[in-house]
Amino acid sequence: MTKSCLRHLLGALLPVLIASSPILAEPLNVAPGSDPGGTAIAVITPPFHLVDSDVSHKLARDGEGVAIGWDFSKRPKSSEGGSAIQDTAAAPEIVRTLAGRQNIRIVSAFIDRLRPASWAQAVAFVAQTPARIVVVPFATAAENDWVAFRAAAEHFPNLLFILPAQSTDKVDKGETATGDGLAYPAAFHLANVLSVSTRSLADTDVVLTTPSPATTDAALALAVNTLLFCPSTHETTQPPMSKLEAMAKFGSLNTSLRRKAPTLGPPPITPCTEAYN
Q1: Per-residue b/e over 159-183, b at no fewer than 16 CB within 10 Å?
Q2: C-alpha span between 40 and 107 (Å, rounded)
Q3: What is the pLDDT of residues 253-264, one digit of tens each?
Q4: Cβ atoms of residues 77 and 85 within 8 Å
Q5: Are 119 and 81 in contact (CB under 8 A)?
Q6: What is the pLDDT of residue 67?
Q7: How does pLDDT run across 185-200, given as a tens digit for each residue?
Q8: 208-229, pLDDT tens digit by residue?
Q9: Whole-angstrom Cα distance, residue 165 to residue 173?
Q10: Of 79, 71, 83, nearest to 21 (Cα)?
Q11: Contact 84, 121 (CB under 8 A)
Q12: Do residues 45 and 137 make contact, with C-beta atoms less than 8 angstroms apart?
C-alpha cells in the first residue's frame, strides 16, 4: 500500500478512531480546578506528571472545572502488557514555558508515539476544543513515523500546527544541523504546519533565536508568544489562525526590526523578546 493510499485510509477511519476514544483513552488524571482564562493552546506530547502546580493551574477547564484534555497513550488490552505509558515524567519544557505565560491556557493531549492511532485521535480531539493553535514539540527523520499525523492534520485544516523544523533527536543530543533538510512532519510542507528552527535551515518557515541557551522548546514557545502577543502591522483582534496569517505577522515583524536596525543581517531574528520575558 502506498503512503498516499494509507493517508486516505486513515482519513476515512478518523470517525471510527474518534468513536473509539472511550475504549482506548482516558481523561487526564488531574483534580478539578478553575479555568485560568486566555487563549487556548493545545500541546500534544507523551504523558507527563500532571500533579504539578506549575502546570495544572494553567490547564483549560470546562464549566465544571474538569481539565479539557485526554490521554490517548493507553494501549488496547490485547497489546503486550496492556498498560499505559508511565506518566511520572516531568512536564516538557514547552509546557512549563507556556504555563508561565499570562493569557494562555493549555489543552493537553497525551499520545503514544509508537501507536499511530493515538496521533489521529489526539488531533481529532483538539479540533473539538477551543484551541486552534497546536504545538507538537518533536520531529524525526523517519517519514513513516508521521503518516497518521499527516492524515489527521490534512483532515482538520482549521488547526495551525507549530512544530520543529529539525529532528529533535539531533537537537537533544547537542548535534549541529547536518544540512540534509527538514525533518518530518515539517518536510510534508502541509498548508497548516508552521516549522520553527533556532538556526538557518533550508525551507524552514520561521527561524527564531532565543535567550541562551537556545532550545527547540524555547523557540516553539517564542513562536507562540509572538503570534499571540507581539504587535505588528498586521495586528488583528484575534491571533493568527492560519499559516498565511502567521507568516504575514512574522514577515511584518521582520520588516519592522530591519527598519530599526538595517545592519541586522539575514535571519535568524528575535521578534518581540520583551513580551516573551
Answers
A1: bbbbbbbbbbebbeeeeebeeeebb
A2: 6
A3: 554 443 443 333
A4: no
A5: no
A6: 95
A7: 999 999 999 888 877 6
A8: 765 555 688 888 888 888 788 7
A9: 16
A10: 71
A11: no
A12: yes
Q: Which residues pair with 41 in a beta bridge?
A: 106, 133
CATH number where 41 lies: 3.40.50.2300
Q: What are the phi and psi torsion angles at 275 (to 5°)?
A: -80, -25
Cell of 272: 518581540
pLDDT averaged per 10 residues in sequence order, the chain, 277 residues: 57 55 74 93 92 84 95 64 55 90 92 87 93 93 90 92 84 44 89 84 71 73 80 50 73 49 39 42
Closest by CA to 99, choosing from 150, 127, 47, 57, is 57
Q: Please report the beta strands in 91-205, taking only residues with DSSP state E, as ranges in sequence order.
A: 104-110, 133-135, 160-164, 193-197
How many whole angstroms separate alpha carbon 120 and alpha carbon 153?
A: 8
- C-alpha cell of 196? 520553527
- List, edge to edge, every strand of the sheet that includes 69-71: 26-27, 69-71, 104-110, 39-45, 133-135, 160-164, 193-197, 206-207
User: What is the tally of structural domains in the chain?
Assistant: 1
What pLDDT, on a 0 to 100 scale, did the predictor assign at position 15? 56
- Which set of grid coordinates corresponds to residue 266? 539575514
The answer to whether the beta carbons of residues 146 and 116 sit under 8 Å apart is no
- Residue 142: what residue type? A
Of 125, 29, 144, whose CA–CA distance to 86 is shortest?
29
Residue with cell 480531539: 125
At 17 the pLDDT is 56
Residue 145: φ, ψ to 5°: -65, -20
Q: Residue 254: is it exposed, middle or buried by C-beta count within 10 angstroms (0-12/13-18/19+)?
A: middle
Q: Which domain holds residue 93?
A: 3-276
